[in-house]
Specification:
It is a single chain. By secondary structure, the protein is of the alpha+beta class. It is built from seven helices and nine strands, in the order ααααβββββαααββββ. A nine-stranded antiparallel β-sheet has the order 2-3-4-1-6-9-8-7-5. The longest helix has 16 residues. 35% of the residues are buried.
């Protein structure tokens, strides 16, 4: 409920506990229990002996670059979930090292709940050894950035949204809330979480394309790009729908692509 509230999304399915089946989690809620494992993974020793771990400066330069989530079933209160992370790819990119972590979440009986491929870009960080690209990630086709939109939805971004989202999602990263830290990390100011921008878009797509039913969401995929500052406004552009596949993008107030190659697959 807190996660949905951070997004200003108060559909009864998220907040009305009088429902016979109880409330259901927002489709992007898995980021909340995945985040501690991503943070913990950055503390793991490297594979070469002369420099055992990522330095604090290197960890500081990490940005969320790609996200691909497959939802096998919705998360509900009472679930006891286990999430296991696996580093499935590391390769050089022009800005730095790109790492993909697959996070497999199962219920207490062992059945799959969700699988996420989360890509992080470590700006200015080198890779030792040969590239080892991820080989098991789902395929997402690029979409034309100038394609006409099926719908455009404007969303106001409040000045305090990053602070609210940090607490409600329990995703703490000072580049989103501490101006001095953000500037020291090479950013012009604090920025909104990529997952917050994506979740705001998903909420609008559920309302407009899924009749307000989040349990229909089977897959969410996107690449992150331009930064979203606060206060500002974003525009969710629903570009196309082919059967149950919705393609979208999000532009920031400067017109930059904050989210590109967005895909939502509906059941």
């Amino acid at each position: 409920m807190a996660y949905a509230a951070a997004l200003g999304d108060v559909l009864p399915c998220y907040v009305d506990t009088r429902q016979p089946a109880g409330v259901v989690a927002h489709p992007l809620f898995p980021v909340c229990f995945e985040w501690p494992l991503i943070v913990g993974g950055r503390q793991l020793p490297r594979t070469f002996p002369d420099d055992g771990r990522l330095t604090p400066a290197e960890r500081m330069r990490s940005v969320h670059a790609t996200h691909d989530l497959v939802i096998h079933r919705s998360v509900r209160p009472g679930d006891r979930l286990t999430t296991r992370p696996t580093i499935v790819g590391v390769e050089r990119r022009k800005p730095g090292a790109y790492q993909v972590v697959r996070l497999d979440t199962t219920a207490a009986n062992g059945t799959a709940v969700c699988t996420t491929w989360m890509g992080a870009l470590y700006r200015g960080v080198d890779v030792d050894g040969p590239d080892r690209p991820a080989t098991d990630t789902p395929v997402t086709e690029s979409i034309a950035t100038e394609a006409p939109a099926r719908a455009e939805i404007r969303v106001a971004i409040a000045a305090n949204l990053a602070h609210v989202y940090s607490e409600c999602a329990r995703i703490w990263n000072p580049i989103h809330t501490d101006r001095a830290f953000a500037v020291a990390a090479g950013l012009p100011d604090i920025i909104l979480h990529g997952t917050a921008t994506l979740a705001l878009a998903i909420s609008r797509i559920i309302t407009s394309e899924a009749s307000g039913d989040p349990t229909r969401v089977q897959r969410i995929a996107a690449r992150f790009g331009a930064m979203v500052f606060m206060p500002s406004e974003i525009v969710v552009r629903i570009i196309a729908r082919d059967a149950g596949v919705v393609r979208f993008e999000v532009r920031n107030s400067e017109g930059g692509l904050a989210v590109r190659d967005g895909v939502v697959v509906l059941r």
